[in-house]
Amino acid sequence: MKIYTWLQRILFAVMGVVFLIITLGCLYNFSQVDLGDSNNTPVLFAFGVIVALQLFVIIRALFRLVDKIEYDASKKSHYLIPVVCFCIMAVVFIILMCVMQPRPITDSYDDLDTAAWIASHGAVDVDNYHIKYMGAFSNNYTLTLIFAVILKVLPFLQMSGILMVLTLMNAVAILVAIFLMWLILKECVGIRAANKALILCTFNPIYYCLVFWIYSLTFSLPVMMGIVYVAIRIYKCIDIKKKEVLLEIFLGILIVVGYELRPTNVFPVIAMVLALPLVLSKHHVLKKILRSGIVALIAAVVLSVTVSTVKDRYFGEIQDQNYPILYWISMGSHGSGDLVSNGEEKAILEKYETADERSNAFLKRTIDNYKQLGISGTADLWVRKTLTTWADGYSTVHNRMSHGEIQNYLYELIGGTHRQLFYIYCQAYRFLIVLGVVLFCLNGSRKKKGDVLYYIMFLSLAGGIAFYMLWEAKNIYSAAFLLPMIILAQEGIGTLSKNIFTVPQVRERRRFINSLYVLSIVLVSMISFHLYGTEETFNFYRINTMYNSRESTDLEMKEEICQDFYTEKAFNRIVLMADTDEDGKYISDYTISILDSHQQLLFEKTIKPSDIKDRRITVDFNKTQCDNHYYVTIKKNYPVFGDIHFYIRNTYFLDSYKGKLEVDGNKAYVNDLNMDVIYSVEQPYFNQSQKYLFTGFYIVVSLVCFVCMLQEQKTVCRKRQELER
């Protein structure tokens, strides 16, 4: 066990250094924010750091409240915090789902639309709209089949209703994952630690936003926590053989489902195996663990074979197009290690046809890349990839909630033109969680209650860190490991919250510290109030489709396109996806018109092939706002000349926004014209009332923190007086 203990200490030290680097990366990300002018970045950096400190003060005060309830209140009071936290999270989810209904994008869109095809037609063939992505990426096949079952069960609902059901399922999956995390901590450590982790989850901004990304990440969260919870129940099961066997079978099922949804779910399983020496050193349960492992393995093998058979039935025709795993390993071995660096990998895919040839080429390329990098270059690459994946608290969530109609200001604050303040809060939260993990690593070698659970979570997180050093780098990947991070962070922050900070004994020093805090808040508020008035050109999207226009095809039109759309807000710009195949001088001009709900002309303009820039035609006009229903018509002026091609995203089920497309009288289109509707305006970041509202909110939060500080100072002084007596 001595060797095992030393290995633990080494791992804690290494992970402590890694997360310290990530902490610095979080601080660096504060410096990447500006409100339209890079000159205000230093102020926003200071603002971000202060927000992080204030968030820490609030969390610390709440943690101390949990400790006080533990010692002073009745047992029933312990359950008040979970009720309040879950109510808050549920209310936030409901508000977001009521005011925003974005359309799925990227992989989520491909999975759902392919599921619609399977539900109505059966197996996927090589002519499927989404063959480029569904053929390449096999990791989502099981989720797509689950979506297909849901679509078959809900044929009576329209598309918007089905998306609402799936979004609600997303919210439930996140809440169930958090509830399982709470149960795990309650079982292994105690309700006090469970409540502290729940408080951290309540402040977590990313999971609220991910409710709109109907994808494997969110659905895998309860499975990851479920694997750990079921393993704990098996471990604690005594003399109930039937129940124990059922739990073991369920564990095997969860492992397979978790792997099929997101392979990173196997890390807790690997961590539990690696933690066996720690378990066996305390309890002699080797026979029980072996039996449980065998039963779970048998159940997993049976289910895995069944799932593979079903996937072969529906995706067998396209599985030969799957990218080999080494594609992502190769991508992560050079450049920035993300999708921007995949040019060489695409070339290999085009050069070789068979899976073996591609795998061998990617393996050779990966080895050559690391040889060329050397030790220092590899270390630099892995540090940059780790910062990309783990230090970005915002994780570009706006991309996953920006497609379709945008009709409310809340989106602008979270993912639109005014998302900078929300970005600062997300970074502050990530900084706090990462700092908590660092504190845990510093105390990691000490024995504590629940150390087996903490070690399993720690090993799971270490596996995720190591895996994404080799894999493709992407900031959203770390969201799958936030719950293990929160479990560790609550221990690190909780340990710190138990210790009362040293408060100067001299009253004048305390006054100086308090005055300095108040002065910093006043200065930040005044400067921020000034920055909020920064003039900038803002593009407020009313309809946004261009971001996710992949796999779009041109419309075959001879005379006219007509697309209607709905927006209650003003707009003055329309952007269309367009290009040409022929020489510009032989291509016809087109007339684009905007009409109101009564078909009355509001604006008209002639567009030419020369107007096309980067496959986009931008049409600007005066501010328009008369009702909430409009029509866009595009007419070809010279039928004998060549065409400008306008595009529509290929789809079987999902359209991009409310409205109907008609081409030369044909209305048989599921999707809508690839078009952005924008209101472009130069204005201050906030108007006068908004400036007072947001500055006032910040001052209120700051005063709450100040009250917490004063309360702690009083507590310290009272304890000193008691000791002096």
TrEMBL record:
Signal peptide, first to last residue: none
Instruction: Give coiled-coil spans as residue ranges.
Output: none
Q: What is this protein called in UniProt?
A: Glycosyltransferase RgtA/B/C/D-like domain-containing protein
| Organism encoding this protein | Coprococcus catus
Q: Which UniProt keywords apply?
A: Membrane, Transmembrane, Transmembrane helix
- The residue ranges crossing the membrane are 12-31, 43-66, 78-102, 133-154, 161-185, 205-232, 244-259, 265-281, 293-310, 422-440, 452-470, 476-496, 516-533, 692-710
Highest rank taxon of the organism: Bacteria
